[in-house]
Amino acid sequence: MTPAHPFTRRGFLGTAAATAGVLAAPATLRAQTVNLRLHHFNSPLSISHTQFLVPWAERLAEATDGELQIQIFPSMQLGGSPGELYSQAKDGIVDMVWTIPGYTANRFTLTEVFELPFVAKSATATAPAVHEFAKRNLGEEYGDTHPILFHTHAPGQLHGKGDPIRTVDDMAGLQIRGPSRPITEAIKTMGAVPVGMPVPAVTEAIARGVVDGAALPWTITRPIRLHEVTDYHTVLDFYAAVFGMVMNKSRWESLPADMQQAINDASSAEFVRELGVLWDGDEEQGRQLAIDAGNEIVEVSDAERDRFREACQPVIDNWIANVNDRGLDGQALYDEALALIEQNAA
Questions:
Q1: Closest CA to 38 of 51, 53, 17, 23
Q2: Is the torsion defined by CA of 5, 148, 177, 113 positive or negative?
Q3: Distance CA 242, CA 26 (A)
């Protein structure tokens, strides 16, 4: 018996029936181990690799008595660019990918609701909210693959060299690296000039004056040693990027039912919350490195944060209008995302 695809367009099909099928099926001996290749863009030293993907794969191997093996390839070792990862899974070039869907421009509009400015809260609250929202709403958006899980990092800040950003007026004319389409738009509405570049290029770009700063979470500043080339860090908690793990659809359907169930069990909402805790916990190290370097930590007042938020409102309005144009209720989906974050924060 093959369990139903867990993500539908507007609903989630629980795994009870699948579990019953697994339990009822007679035990069989498989001729060989099933090996799956998982490709991702991050470093083999990153927490995503060492503390998430590797333990996750080990958990699956243990749950299946070693019959399901996930071979992980970090740093785009199998070729291509991060923006091509989703297509690699869709087209069967690899079995699975862990990626940022937003790297594929204009493809995952509904997913972007969690990347809109000032939507995300802690990763502990936002990651399970994204995962649940995906179950309810994103089946069509990821219909050409099999989605496994979604989560986010902790909210990002502004890091720069030169005069600190203390108010939204200080953004005027600065060249700031943006991480995603919504935040690139937000940087522009706040008065700065958005610049796109991959994360590994950010440190040198700031050091050489190519850009004045970058929007990044603390967890990323540590491995790229951003504290060594910056003077200040403006704490805004104003965005997050969505991460997703998806699998080639045909490859998923070819798996035995008990292996499908093992993957579902290892990728539960509880596990996604654990990922949020992991990403939140990694923030303090990056912040402490900046403090130890003598950099200024700028804590924005509530009143000034409201000014930043007001400057970004057109980005939210544009997203809602774009979703409405697709025949969906953009405001309702935006409100649902906020409500799920609040529920998980509680």
A1: 53
A2: positive
A3: 40
Q: Provide the pLDDT for residue 31.
A: 55
Q: Is 23 a residue whose pLDDT tops 70?
A: no
CB atoms within 10 A of CB 278: 20
Provide the CA 327 distance to its chain's centre, in angstroms: 26
Spell out the domains of the chain, with CATH numbers in brackets: 31-111+130-152+242-281 (3.40.190.170), 157-239+287-345 (3.40.190.170)
The DSSP element (H or E) to which 158 belongs, if any, is: strand 157-160
Each residue's pLDDT tens digit, 175-217: 999 999 999 999 999 999 999 888 889 999 999 999 999 999 9
Residue with tokens 């504290």: 227
As a whole number of Å, the CA-based R_g of the chain is 21
d(CA 104, CA 240): 16
Q: Please name the residues in contact with 275: beta carbons below 8 A apart, sequence gap of 6 or more.
A: 52, 123, 127, 151
Does residue 164 register a pLDDT over 50? yes
Banded model confidence at residue 173, pLDDT cuts 50, 70, 90: very high
**Residue type present at position 323:** V
Encoded amino acid at 106, one letter? N
What is the 8-class DSSP label of residue 51? I
Query: What is the average per-residue pLDDT within 331-337?
Result: 98
**Residue ranges with strand state E in 74-122:** 96-99
